[in-house]
Amino acid sequence: MRVGGARMPNVRQRKKKLKPASARRKSRRLASLAPRSANSRRHPTTAAAEIARTRAEAEAAIADARKSHERLREAIELLPQGIVFLDAEGRYTLWNKQYAEIYSRSADLFAPGARLEDTLRIGVERGDYPQAAGREEEWIAERLAKMYQPGARHEQTLSDGRVILIEERLTGDGGVVGLRVDITELKQREASFRLLFDGNPVPMIVCALDGGRILAVNDAAVEHYGYGRTEFETRTISGLQAFDSDPPWATDRPGDEQAARTWKHVRADGSLIDLAIYSRELIYDEKPAVLLALMDITERKRAEARIAFLAQHDDLTGLPNRNLLRQQMDDILAHARRSSDKVAVLVLGLDNFKAVNDSLGHSVGDKLLRAVAKRLRSTLREDDALARLNSDEFAMIQGGLTRPEDAVLMSRRLLEAIGDPFLLDGHSVVVGVTIGIAMAPGDGDDSEMLLKNADMALSRAKNDCRGTFSFFEAAMDARAQTRRKIETELRDAVRDERLQPYYQPLIDLSAGRITGFEALVRWPHPQRGMVSPGEFIPVAEETGLINAVGGLMLRRACKDAATWPDEVRVAVNLSPLQFRTGNLLSIVMDALKQSGLSAKRLELEITETLLLEKSSQVLATLHALRALGVRISMDDFGTGYSSLSYLRSFPFDKIKIDQSFVRDLGANREAQAIIRSIVSLGKGLGVTITAEGVETEAELSCLRAEGCHEGQGFLFSRARPNEEIVELLRAQRGADEPDTVKARVA
Ligand code: C2E
Ligand code: MG
Ligand code: MG
């Protein structure tokens, strides 16, 4: 293999330039000499003079020739290559310093008239030519033959490892002119290249610049492609390509490495691979060629494609996610603007998803979502877009509508499709769907606004009547704005600690005594009076303000309770979100420490939703709180899902029966049966049972009859500020009689 072009000077041209100048002068002089010699015989006196002149002329000619010879010598000394002139008998006539340097080991033998064959033979005997070893005479004969029948250039290796390139030509007089170039460095570069090429772990191919025929491949290429070396070398680079395209080096930017494009090649087994190809032009076997380094990026491309897909799709259902949906919506909206069509944006919320997930497990929940996605997909028209927005919400975009009624028809179809039971792992699962609809133009110009408004319509439909659809109305937006206003005002109120606890007593129904108070947050609003927590707790939970609200309530309640008699407890409500921050335990401990309240006087009320996720972290926090001595109550019992399993997952100290069961207790036998069973459950578990929302004497007497331990409700007292509580407790101390309490607080 030859890399790079070592160009020999054109010997013939140089020779032509040198020879005619001296030759012309010499023949002119010899011509003028001849006739004059003939004349000198006829006139003896002039003959002597002529002889003298002739001699002078001859000497001048000799001097001239010597000068020419000198000039020639000087000229050849300027050449970077070694040069040697031999006569027809192969004797040295002229050589330059570079020639003597190349053959420095034989330089002592060079002398005008010495025969090259002799110096060669001496050199061979001395071992100057390793190529001759073992076949000395043969080698000398070959060498001389090459010299007298000059053809292609050839290389000669010397004993010191140098490599000499030899080019020879016959001269007009049968002699030889020879050029010598030391190409050792070039050969070393070639050898390094060979090593790099052959042993490179990256598949490499050399192909002809013109036509792309494959000239050489390395071992890695043979292994990677599976073609044999000879099979490879019958192909062109485009023959490897899976599709017709320009060769990899055909680029607008001529020259070096380029890997801007990727290529698809076919391997021997027919499989396709993606490649980044780096190319570099070079001379290979004295012809223009290209070296290609082939980086297999099949895996990388596959991973990139997967990542790109995941970035725009929901992993579980394979549906587009919100990002991709927005892009698709932008296209649909742009098209609608041009055609004056209407676009319907439907946001769908599954109705019972959490219950299914909770009761049948996450794997059934996942299967349900996939099955829902499949049904939704089957209702799609070609130009519609469908996406999963979050856990149980999907969106569908329909373009090309003429009237909102089209969206109604679509919604009905969807309600029906999702309403049919799903058969999952042997369970027949029924989930409903509720749909919010926003229309463009009208309900918004961009995807963001339309999705937001459809979502608002969905919330409204969920509140009003699940399993139906609802169109967005401007009034919903007004409601949403009110909500935003609450958020900003609440933020200020929390910051300024304007929220305060009101306390509602809990009464021991057998003794008729106040056992404790539930702290209920109140927001005294400058314009709206006392705002109830039902209005702002959901906003606080949505915005994360709940942690500040909860912390404030804990500190205040503990501080107030520390001033009450020792046997009176305080109950504080906790939002499930307060468990997510991870520092609830230390917040409770701080509140107790700062107030000096004993832990056993603090009750924390949690709801069943906290236990929905069955999180080990939640249970660990609850156990840690209980270990402090704090009592844990289950609030609003009976309103969540599968309440009994929660009773097993944690040893509650108290169960508070939701007021919906207490309502109509006097008139409703079912309610009475439920209360009875909860009370007996509580007795069995050794847990206090408290009835919430006791409003009437009838309810109270019924609860007493069933053996319910505790009651709380307007019949006894509404929630009151701490100052009034202190009064109430003083009164209880003074007249230790249950009816007094009832009478005084009612
Ligand atoms: P809850 O914990 O079940 O509190 C009982 C709610 O029932 C209180 O409403 C109380 O005023 C009301 N109530 C008590 N007796 C009667 C009655 O005889 N009849 C009727 N109709 N209602 C009665 P409130 O104060 O509006 O609180 C509502 C909910 O707000 C609470 O329900 C609780 O879940 C939440 N909440 C209140 N304060 C806080 C708090 O500081 N933190 C957290 N996270 N939630 C709180
Ligand atoms: Mg409560
Ligand atoms: Mg409650």
Q: How would you characterize the overall build of this protein?
A:
The protein is of the alpha+beta class. Among the domains are: 187-301, PAS domain (Beta-Lactamase, 2-Layer Sandwich); 312-472, Alpha-Beta Plaits, CATH 3.30.70; 485-603 and 615-630 and 719-724, Alpha-Beta Barrel (TIM Barrel), CATH 3.20.20.450. Helix content is 47%, strand content 21%. The protein has 25 helices and 26 strands. It has an 8-stranded mixed β-barrel, surrounded by 4 helices. Helix 4 packs antiparallel against helix 5, helix 11 runs antiparallel to helix 12 (362-379) and helix 18 (584-595) packs parallel to helix 19 (616-628). Mean pLDDT is 86; it is low at 1-40, 254-259 and 737-741. Residues 635-636, 656, 692 line the site of one magnesium ion.
Structure annotation, total helices: 25
Helix content: 40-55%
Strand order of the largest sheet: 18-19-21-22-23-24-25-26
Briefly note the structural class of the backbone: alpha+beta
Range of strand content: 15-25%
CATH level 4 superfamily of the domain at 312-472: Reverse transcriptase/Diguanylate cyclase domain
Assign the CATH architecture of the domain at 312-472.
Answer: 2-Layer Sandwich
Q: Measured on Cα atoms, how large is the radius of gyration? A: 52 Å
Whole-number mean pLDDT:
86
Number of strands: 26
Please summarize the sheet with the most strands: 8 strands, mixed, barrel
| Large-scale geometry | elongated
The CATH class assignment of the domain at 312-472 is Alpha Beta
Q: What is the end-to-end distance?
A: 108 Å
CATH topology of the domain at 312-472: Alpha-Beta Plaits
The set of bound ligands, ions and cofactors reads: ligand C2E, magnesium ion
Question: Spans of 5+ residues with little confidence (pLDDT < 50)?
Answer: 1-40, 254-259, 737-741
